[in-house]
UniProtKB/TrEMBL annotation, chains A, B:
Lineage: Bacteria, Bacillati, Bacillota, Bacilli, Bacillales
Family: Belongs to the class-IV pyridoxal-phosphate-dependent aminotransferase family.
Position of the signal peptide: none
Name listed for the protein in its UniProt record: Branched-chain-amino-acid aminotransferase
Species annotation: Paenibacillus phyllosphaerae
MF terms in GO: branched-chain-amino-acid transaminase activity
The entry's keywords: Amino-acid biosynthesis, Aminotransferase, Branched-chain amino acid biosynthesis, Pyridoxal phosphate, Transferase
Length: 357, 357
C-alpha cells in the first residue's frame, strides 16, 4: 500500500549544468528523499525536501565505524518524453542484502521504490537527454547514532540523492586500460565484498591512485586468498569472450552481484551465446591472450554501463586485447542495453519501469 | 613551532554525567577541535569550538566510500591534580599511517598534539577521577568532498571529540568470553586491516552481534587466508602466556599495531619475561589448553586497557582458561599500566605526557 511521502518543494531552483559537461556525480538536483530510523519507531517520516546539507553529531557511527551501504541506478528520458528506470526492484533487493551484512535494519523495498519514483518525478527536469547521459540515482543508508562503542547503530537515515551524469570514464565508450593489482586486496571470502558498502571502496583508493599514475583507468582485483582468481574491476564486474564463449567470475561471496552483470548474462542467454559463470584465473586469461582465443573483454556496471577493456597489465606484463579496439559483441551488448534503458529499443525482458509524470 | 589555534568557548556548559554511570562513548564534552583541508589550501583554520553537530553535503565521500580513519587515546587526572596523556605521539604516527593507506593527506602530528592538549585543557573539568575512569579522546578524519566518482576526496575535516568513560566492557576487569569466528573475516593481507579505518569495524558487526546473542563479549578473528592464525579481538590485540612465555600474533599487515600492545611487549621485556611475536594458530592454543600449559590470556587496547580472557569458543569447542579467573601476570600488567597512565605509579618508560593547565 502506498505510504504518504511528505513533499516540500524548493523555492530556489538551481541552474542546470550543460549536458555536455556533466561528468559523473558532480551536480545534484533540487530535491532529495529522507527516511529516518530509530529502534523505537522503526523507519519513519518519509519526505522529499530541498537538496541541502545534513547535520550529524560528530560521534555519528558512520564517521567512525563505517556502518553505511548504498545503491546506484539511473533514470532515462526516452525520445517520446517518457521516464524510465532500469530494474529498480533489484537495487532495493540488493540494498537489503547489503543492509543485512552491515547489521542495518531492512528498508521497505516498496516504499523505497515509491520514494525513488516520486523524487524522479519532482526533479524530472533534471533528466538529461543527450546521448550517453542519464540521471544517476544514489540511495544510501548511514548510521547516525552518536555513540563510540563498536556496535550496530540504533539510528539511521535512508536517503536518495540524484545527479545528472555523462560517461563514467573520460574514455567514454573507448576501451579502458586496466591494471591487475598484485599487492592490495579489495575483499575476501567472509568479508563484506558482496555488500555495496563504503569500506570496499575505501580499500581500493590507494591501488587505484597508483594505477592512475601509471596511466590505467581502473584496477582489476584478484581474490584475497590465492591471488590468482579474477574478481572484479573497481566499479565493474568483468566478462571475457574466449573462443566464442563468454566467461565471468562466479559470485563467490567477495564479488558484487552486479545488476548490469545479471542483465548481460540474461541477454547473452537469450541470444544463444554460451555464457559461463566460473572461477577464472589471471593465468588462463593471459594464456588465452597468448594463443589468440581471447576475443573480447569488457566491464559492466550501472555507472559505466559497458566498458570495453583494451589492455591489461599484470606484473608488468601487458596484455593488449583486439589491438585495443572495441569488440563486436561488446558493442552489440552496449547498444542493446543502453537502447533498452533509454527507450530506443523495445524492452523484451520486462526490465524497465516507467515513472508517472 | 606552535600554531595559533582559534578558541571559541561555549556559553552553555552541559551538565556532567555521574562518574559511576559513564559507560563508553555516550557523553561528549563541551568543546571539539576542527581542522579543514582543501587541495588548494592544505590543512587550514585550526579551531576549538563548542561541541556541536557538523553539516555535510549528503554526497560527502565519507558517506559513500568510507574514506575515514580514527584514533583513540585517553587523558587521565592524577591524584595530585595533574593531567596526563599516554604516548600520544604514537597515536598521531599511526593516524598518518592510516591516512596513507586510505589516500588521505598527512596531518601535522605536532599540530595535532598541540590541538589535543589545548582541547583537553579547555575541557579539563570533564576528566573523571573515579577508579577506572578517564577522558577518551577521539581524533578522526572524514572525507567531505561532495562527489560520487570513486576517487580520493579533495576536502577533509580532521576533528577531535572527547568523552568521559568508564570501563569498556560491562564485565570491568572480570574475564570476558570470546567467540572464535569461523565464517566472517575482519581483514586480509593486502587489505586495510592495519589501518584504523571505519570499514574494518563495519565488517565485524554481524559476527559480533551473533556472538553477543550466544553470550560472548567479543569476536576473536582468524586470518582471512588460511583461517587458522589468530589475528585480533574486535577492539583488542591478544596475548597468551604459555608455559612461562608470552605470545602475541606478529604484525602481519592485517592486524592493528596497538599502542597498548606495544607497551605491554615493552613492559614484559623490561621485566625479563620472555615475549614472542609470531604467527599463532588456534589449534596450538587449544593444544596448550588441553595439555595444561595455557596459563593466561588477555586482550589489550586503549578502550579496554587490559582485559583477561576467561573462556573461548571455537567451532563449538569451549576452552576455559584458569577456570575463568584473572591471571597473576595479567593483573600485574593491568595494575602497572593503569598505574602509570593515571599517575599512581612513576613512569619508568617516559610514556606519559603532561598537559599544562
Amino acid at each position: 500500500m502506498a505510504q504518504t511521502i511528505d513533499i516540500t518543494l524548493t523555492t530556489n531552483k538551481k541552474e542546470k549544468p550543460p549536458e555536455n559537461k556533466l561528468g559523473f556525480g558532480i551536480y545534484y538536483t533540487d530535491h532529495m528523499f529522507i527516511l529516518d530510523y530509530s529502534v523505537e519507531k522503526g523507519w519513519y517520516d518519509p519526505r522529499i525536501v530541498p537538496y541541502q546539507p545534513i547535520t550529524l553529531d560528530p560521534a555519528a557511527k558512520v564517521f567512525h565505524y563505517g556502518q553505511t551501504i548504498f545503491e546506484g541506478l539511473k533514470a532515462y528520458r526516452t525520445k517520446d518524453g517518457r521516464i524510465q528506470l532500469f530494474r529498480p526492484q533489484k537495487n532495493f533487493e540488493r540494498l537489503n542484502r547489503s543492509n543485512a551484512r552491515l547489521s542495518i535494519p531492512d528498508v521497505d523495498g516498496e516504499l523505497a521504490l515509491q520514494a525513488l519514483q516520486e523524487l524522479v518525478r519532482v526533479d524530472q527536469d533534471w533528466i538529461p537527454s543527450a546521448p550517453g547521459t542519464s540521471l544517476y540515482l544514489r540511495p544510501f543508508v548511514i548510521a547516525t547514532q552518536a555513540a563510540l562503542g563498536v556496535a550496530p547503530s540504533t539510528e539511521y537515515k535512508f536517503m536518495i540523492i540524484m545527479s545528472p551524469v555523462g560517461a563514467y570514464y573520460a574514455e567514454g565508450m573507448n576501451p579502458v586500460k586496466i591494471y591487475v593489482e598484485s599487492d592490495h586486496v579489495r575483499a575476501v571470502k567472509g568479508g563484506v565484498g558482496e555488500a555495496k558498502t563504503a569500506g570496499n571502496y575505501a580499500a581500493g583508493l590507494n591501488a587505484q591512485q597508483a594505477a592512475s599514475e601509471k596511466g590505467y583507468s581502473q584496477i582489476l582485483w584478484l581474490d584475497g586468498v590465492q591471488r590468482k582468481y579474477i574478481e572484479e574491476v573497481g566499479s565493474m564486474n568483468v566478462f571475457f569472450k574466449i573462443d566464442g564463449t563468454v566467461y565471468t567470475p562466479s559470485l563467490n561471496g567477495s564479488i558484487l552481484a552486479g545488476i548490469t552483470r545479471d542483465s548481460i548474462i540474461h541477454m547473452l542467454k537469450s541470444w544463444d551465446i554460451p555464457v559461463v559463470e566460473r572461477p577464472i584465473t589471471i593465468e588462463e586469461l593471459y594464456e588465452a591472450g597468448a594463443n589468440g582465443t581471447l576475443e573480447e573483454a569488457f566491464g559492466t556496471g550501472t555507472a559505466a554501463v559497458i566498458s570495453p577493456i583494451g589492455e591489461m597489465n599484470w606484473q608488468d606484463k601487458p596484455l593488449v586485447i583486439r589491438d585495443g579496439s572495441t569488440g563486436e559483441l561488446t558493442a552489440k551488448l552496449y547498444d542493446t542495453l543502453t537502447g533498452i534503458q533509454n527507450g530506443d529499443i523495445e524492452d523484451p525482458y520486462g526490465w524497465t519501469v516507467e515513472v508517472k509524470q
